[in-house]
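ok so I'm stuck.
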Amino acid sequence: MSGNAGIKLLEQKVPLSYIRLQDVVTTLAEERRLEHKDPVLLGNHYKHLVIEKMEEVYQSSFQDVTELTQATQFLHENGILLHYDDVNLQDYYFLDPQWLCDILASVVTIREINSLAKSGHSHLTTILNLDNLCEICKPSLIRCQFSDTESAITL
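replied:
not stuck anymore, here's the structure
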C-alpha cells in the first residue's frame, strides 16, 4: 500500500497513517498500563512518543505536526483516544477512553458501583465524601487538594 492508500470506513477512505496511529496509540496505552502508569500523555510527550514509535515500527511518520493533529482529531472523533480543545484539557491525550470513563464513574457514581457513595436526600441523589475522593483516585493523575475553606480537584 502506498502512503496515500487507505482503508474504507463506512465508504470513507482512511489514510494508512491514521490506522497506524491507532495501532501506536493502542500500543502506548498498553505499555503504560504494564508500567502501572495512567494511559494519559501530555501534549509534547504525546507528539514525541507517537512520532518515535511510528518511525520505529513503520519507518515513517507524519509530514508535520498539522497532519498528526488531524489524525489525532480523527481518532478522537471515532472514540479511539480523547483529546479536547478545552483550555483545561487541551494538553492531555487520553490514550484509553474506557480508562477515563472508569475514573469518572468512580466519582460520579451509584452505591452499587462505589461502596463509598452514600444515599443523598432523595433516592435519585448519591453523595461521595471529598475525603474518599483521593482514595478512589489514588492511582490516577487526578490530584486532590483540600483545606478547611475550599476543595479542589486538579487534573
